[in-house]
Every structure is written in C-alpha cells, then in structure tokens.
Specification:
By secondary structure, this protein is mainly alpha-helical. The protein has 4 helices and no strands. The termini are far apart.
Length: about 100
Amino acid sequence: MCTLNVRIDDNVMRRVKPHFTGNNAMQLWIERVLKQAMEDYAEERESQKVKEAETLKLVERLDSLKDDPDAFFKMGGILGQPKGNFSWEELREEAMLEKYGV
C-alpha cells in the first residue's frame, strides 16, 4: 500500500474535524474518498486513451482511402453498420425538420 502526504488548509480542517469521532475516523474517510476519486480519474483517463486510439485508427483508415476512386463504397466497413432500429424515413424526416422546419 502507498502512503501519501497531503496538505489540507487549516481552516477546512477546523470545520471538518468536529464531524468525526476521532482522527482515525477522519483518516479512514479521507482514504475512502481519495481512493474513489483516484479510481474515477484513472477510469476517465483510460477511457479517453481508448477513444483517442480509436479516433486515430479511424483517421488512418480514412486517409488510406484518400486517392481511391472507390473510397465511397469502402467507407461502409470503416464507419460501421447502422443500428438495428435505423430508419431512412426517420432520418429524412429529421433532416426536413432541421432544414425546413417541416
């Protein structure tokens, strides 16, 4: 287990300390809260890295089609398949509403 030294403003400590039954209770609470914050932060960063890698991969695949005359037909595999509930009619209606307000 890792040990950290953390600085906390004295005014904040004076306000918080009375709400705990002792230093040990406050220490356990701080450890629990800090652990959760660090796990959330790590998860967010790892997720962001995965998204960045996927984006880079997509851009590389699209760049490889730049001078290909059949690029439009090959993009379907790159951009994925439409969702099961995909509807061209619904897409057309959304476009009409957005463009013409109809």
